[in-house]
Amino acid sequence: MANAPLDVLIIGGGVAGLAMALEIADRRPVTLLRPGVEAQGASRWAQGGIAAVLSPQDDIEAHIQDTLIAGDGLCDEAAVRFTVENGPDAIAWLLSLGVPFTPDPEAASGYPYHLTREGGHNARRIIHADDATGRAVTDTLLARVRAHPQIALRDDLIAVELLTDDLGACCGARCLDAHQRPHDLVAQDTVLATGGASGLYLHTTSPAPASGEGMVMAWEIGAELMNLEFQQFHPTCLFDPQGPPFLVSEAVRGEGGLLLNVRGERFMPAIDERAELAPRDVVARAIDAEMQRTSSDHVLLDIRHLGDAAIRHHFPTIHAHCLTRGLDITTQAIPVVPAAHYSCGGVATDHRGATRVAGLYAIGEVACTGLHGANRMASNSLLECLVYARSAARHLSEPAPGRTLTPRPSATTGDRQVSSERLASLRQRVRQIMSARVAIVRQDEGLAEARTTLEQLESEFHDLTRGGAASVELHACRQALTLASLTVASACTRRESRGLHYNPDCARHADPTPQPSRQIKPA
């Protein structure tokens, strides 16, 4: 089913998608796809805050250097500088929209809002809304989007493929509705804001993480993917096998939280001089190693020494949530475990969000801008969403002249119903092999096993779906299999341990500025 041509189509309604919609809608009409499941996506669950140089005691160069160090030699310095320099203006924009950041009552701090510190940062530069920053920013932006007359917000369609014309340029997206009926949304410019790939793993920090669907959609029409091997695991997800995932913010360690093993012993000071405030890759590996050393399935994050009043003041959301799980963090240490959290790789873009495919842009976690390198520094993610969304909006303020919007016809599909249970089983097996062999520590033998297993799963998928009718579940399963295979290939290609890619069979990197690994779809 074809629809009337659109001007700007944004796929994804987290912070990146919402911010770009607001920034461009005064100049060009926008259609924003935001399926209901995105209310549980990564943006809303971001707790810690947004990193930016806001304090008189901080400076741009310090934030740049901290980011470069955390990225372990793989950051694009120009991208880091662009992001950091545009950070203060992005925060000012959010304040102008009414985001309720937490005020700082101490006049001596020199900034009216409270700034906390997180791993990798050598200054207090994380502005936050208590411990629910993602929710506060998302809710504020969403309210503004709903009120804007030039933004059509649609929650009834899910994009499953991108449309291209005879020249290979992107011209919109093919979507499915709740009844699996196709709808082609033809558009002058298409923007992916679909999130990362943490859903490829069993344990994640958000209830409904993406599994790289947008990355694969872009790759299938010729966009370049890079750095897929750098999947970040947040060191501290609440350990509760019977309950849903829940992130315990890095700000907890920033305010003095200590990591203990199950015997009550601190272990981070012996591993890194920054102790609990070392970058995430260091802390996650340390926790993983300590769990193996003590034959335990979690470690402990202890903030009891901060006192009841400070805990309730700084971490009301975490305190209230843990109480619902039978845990009082004012009197009990928090059981935590690393969980898949953020994809540092994705669709390669420039500082305008442009991909190598004409008419296609990517912003937020789906994109790889070069900011994060081999390891994202805490609270740089929402900063990146805002800076690149606003940059892309400025670039696209006027449509490209002379574009014809004639998408190529879609491939025919069958009408046989494919079992949802079988597809769900395949997805679960992808998560199992990725978690077992391509997680915090990966080795050559395990990567080879993962490659073989994924090839078998792909064969099963094709046998199962041959002649099958298109469905959201079918496309999602295919995309998860594809991205998992590409991620394993990237991990096999990198013959060094660097940042989030830790392989004991490879030496620790010696070259400080290697070229990032890339996967490019053949012509």
TrEMBL record:
Residues in coiled coil: 440-467
Positions of the FAD-dependent oxidoreductase 2 FAD-binding domain: 7-382
Compositionally skewed regions (Polar residues) per UniProt: 407-420
Enzyme Commission designation: 1.4.3.16
Pfam families linked to this entry: FAD_binding_2, Succ_DH_flav_C
Role, per record: Catalyzes the oxidation of L-aspartate to iminoaspartate.
The protein, known as: L-aspartate oxidase
Organism: Halomonas litopenaei
